[in-house]
Amino acid sequence: MLSYLLRRLAASVVILLLSSMMVFLMVAKSGDPLATLRLNPHIPKAVIAARSAQLHLNDPLPKRYWIWISNAIHGNFGLTIGNQPVAPQLWSHMVVTLEMVLIATAIAIVLAITIGVLSAIRQGRTFDTGAAFTNYLFISIPVFVLGLVLKEFVAIPINSAIGHTVLYTIGQQSPNLSGGFFSRFGNYAGHAVLPILTLILVVYPSWSIYQRSSMLEALDSDYVRLARAKGLRPSRVLIRHTLRNALIPVTTVIALDFAAILGGAILVEQVFSWQGMGTWFLGGITNLDVNTVQAYLLVTAFFIVLFNFIADILYGVLDPRIRYG
Amino acid sequence: MAEHVDLRPGGRTPPQVGSDRAGTPPRRKARRGWGKPGKLPVAGGESRHLGDEHGLAGDARKQWQIVLRRFVHQPRAMISLGVFALLGVGSVVAGALWKYSYTTLTDQIAAPGQGAPSWAHPFGVDPIGHDLFAQVMQGTKEDIQTALLVAVISTAIGTTIGALAGYFRGMVDPVLMRFTDLILSVPLLAILAVLGNIAAKQSGSWLWVAIIIGVLAWTYVARLVRADFLSLRERDFVEAARAIGASNRRIIVRHLLPNALGPIIVNATLTVANAILLESTLSYLGLGIQPPQVSLGTLVASGQGDATTFWWLFVFPAAFIVVMILCVNFIGDGLREAFDPRKTRVRA
Fold first, then answer.
1. pLDDT of A43-84, one tens digit each?
2. Using CA atoms, how far apart are residues B113 and B102, in angstroms rounded to an integer?
3. A264–chain B nearest CA distance, Å
4. What is the CA radius of gyration of chain B?
5. Quick one: which of B104, B135, B108 has its CA closest to B119?
C-alpha cells in the first residue's frame, strides 16, 4: 500500500509539472500582454522595454518558465498587468470560490445519494421516473441558463412577492454592509443561496444517476441476497450491506468531477457577479493578463491533481478487494 | 437452439445447470457481440467460418437490425430524434426561406410596449431591430453544425488514442494515458476559454470553435475505447486472427473496432450534447462564436439584461438550447439501451 501511495504521489507530481508547462506554454503563446501599451503613442519606448523586461518577455521560453515556476512554488505569482502582485488577489478570490464550491458540493453529495438510493429502491415507480426526468432536465440545462432563470424568473418574483429583497442576485454581499453578526450572516446567506443552488443543481444529476445504478448493481449482488437470506433486518441490509458498497464507485466519480465543478463555478460567478476565482480568471483572459491566467490554471490544476490522488487512495481504502502490488 | 447449447463446453452435463442457464446465451449475445469472427452460428450454421467476410457481414447486419429494432421501439428516443432532426433541417430551411435574414434590420425595435412576438415576428425583435426568429434559426444551425463537427473530431481522436493505448499496451499505453490525464488536469472550460480567446481574435467562426472543442473533448472516449480494447485483445478471435497472420492494423480495424462500436456511437451522441453545452457556454462568455455571427449562446448573452422586460430575447434562445441538449441526451440514452439493454444507465 505504501509503495502504491508513493508511486501515485510521484505520478501526481509529474502530471502537475507537465500540466504547469502546458499551461505556461499555452498562455505565453496566446498573445502579447503589452499590445495595448505598444499601440499607445504617448508611452515612450523605454517604458515598454522596462515592462517587457519586468515580465521577462524577451527571455527564451524555458528560462521564462523556470523563473515563473520557481517563484510560483514560493507563492509568488508575479505581477498583474496593472503592476499589482498576483498572489494576494489569487488568495482572496480563491476563498470566495472555494466556500461556494465546497458548500455546494457537500449539499449536492447528500442530495445525489438520497435521490439515487431512493430511485434504486423504487426502481420503475413514480419516484424513479420523476427523478430520472428531473436528472435529465438539469443535465441538459447549461449553467448560465439555469443561473439566469433562477435569477430572473425565481428570485425577482419571490422578492417582489415578499416585498423586500431576500434573495440577492448580484455579488457576495451588499456594499457598505454593517450591523450585528446575525444581520450580516443573513445578508451573506441571502447572496449565497442562488449561486450555491445553481451549482448544486448542475452537479448532482450525474452523481445521482451513478449512485442509482451502482445501488442497483449492489442490490442484485450475491452478498445482499445472502444478507437477506440470513434474515437481517431490511434496513440493516440496505445500509450496511448495500449502500456501503454502492458508495465506493460514486466516491471516486465525485472526486474526479472536481474539475467540472470548478468549471461550473466560473459561470455561476459570472452570472451572479461574484468576485471569485472564475470572474478573476475571465478578466485575466480578456486583458491578456498572463500571470493572472497562469496562476489560476496552476492552482486549479493543483486542486484537480490532488483530488484525483485522493480518489485513487479512497478507492483502495474503501474497497478491500483492491490490492495494490 | 439445441445445437447451440450442445456446442457450449459442458453445456448439457447436469440438467439443473442447463435449465438454470437457459437464458444466458442470447443475453450474452445481445450484450457483447458485433459479428465476431469465429463465433458460433446464430441460426442455420451458414456463418460458421472463421473470419469469413460474408459470414461476418451477414452477422453484422443482423446485429444492426436488432439494435435498430430496439431503438425504434423506444418512443422517447424516437420523438427526440424527430425533434432534433426537425430543428436541424428546420433551421436550415427556415433560415433560407424566412423573409428576414439574421443580419436584416427590420423597421421594428424592442422597446417598452413593442417588439413582442407577433405574426410578423414570431419570436419578436431585439432592441436594434433584428428579427429574433431568423437569429434563433441561424444560432440553432451554427450550434448543430458545431456540435456535429466536435463529435466527429473528438470521436476520431479519442478512438485512435484509446485503441492504440489499449491494443499495444507496453510503453504506448502509459504515455497516452498520462497525456489524457494531462488534458484532464485543468478544467476543460478554462482551457477552452484561453484557446477561445485566441481563436476569437483570428476569426469568430464556428469552425474554429468546433476545432478547439473537438481537440480537447476526446478524453472520455479514449478511456472508454482503451478499457474495451484491453479486454477485447485477450479474446480468442484476436488470437485466431493473429495466428492467421493478420497485421496489427487489420486486427484493430477489422476485428476490435467493430466490437467496440456500440459504446463509441453512444458516446459520440453524448458528445454532441456536451458540445452544444460547451459551445453555447463559450459563446455566452464572448469567447466562442463572435458577432456578426450568432449562436444561441451569444443571443442569450445579449438578451439576459432584458430578461424580465423583453422576455422573448432570453426565453427563445435558452429554450432552444435546452430542448436540443435534452433531445440529444434522450437519443443517446435510447441508443445505449438499444446496444446494451442489460446495462443500467450510467452517464459519464
1. 788 888 887 777 777 788 888 888 888 888 888 888 787 778
2. 23
3. 8
4. 25
5. B108
Report the alpha-carbon distance of residue A151 to residue B204 in Å, rounded: 29
How far apart (Å, rounded) are the C-alpha atoms in residues B57 and B40?
15
In angstroms, the CA A292 to CA A90 distance is 8
Q: For residue B210, what are the CA distances in angstroms to A27, B154, B201, B282?
A: 20, 10, 15, 11
**pTM for this prediction:** 0.83
CATH level 3 topology of A87-286:
MetI-like fold (1.10.3720)
Domains of chain B: 6-60 (no CATH), 70-339 (1.10.3720.10)
- Work out the minimum CA distance from A58 to partner chain B, whole angstroms: 21
Residues of A in contact with B329 (CB under 8 A): 136, 139-140
pLDDT band at B221 (very low <50, low <70, confident <90, very high): very high
pLDDT at B37: 46
Q: What is the ipTM of this complex?
A: 0.87
Which of A234, A155, A160 minimizes the C-alpha distance to A198?
A155
Q: Check whether B16 has a pLDDT greater than 60.
A: no
- How do residues A153-191 score in pLDDT, each as one tens digit? 888 888 888 877 777 877 777 776 667 777 777 788 888
Residues of B with CB under 8 A from a CB of A: 178, 181-182, 184-191, 193-195, 197-198, 201, 273, 277, 280-281, 284-287, 297, 300, 304, 307-308, 314, 318, 321-322, 325-326, 329-330, 333, 344-348
**What are the domain boundaries of chain A?**
87-286
Show Cβ contacts of residue B90 under 8 Å, excluding neighbours closer than 6 positions: B137
CB atoms A213 and B322 under 8 Å: no
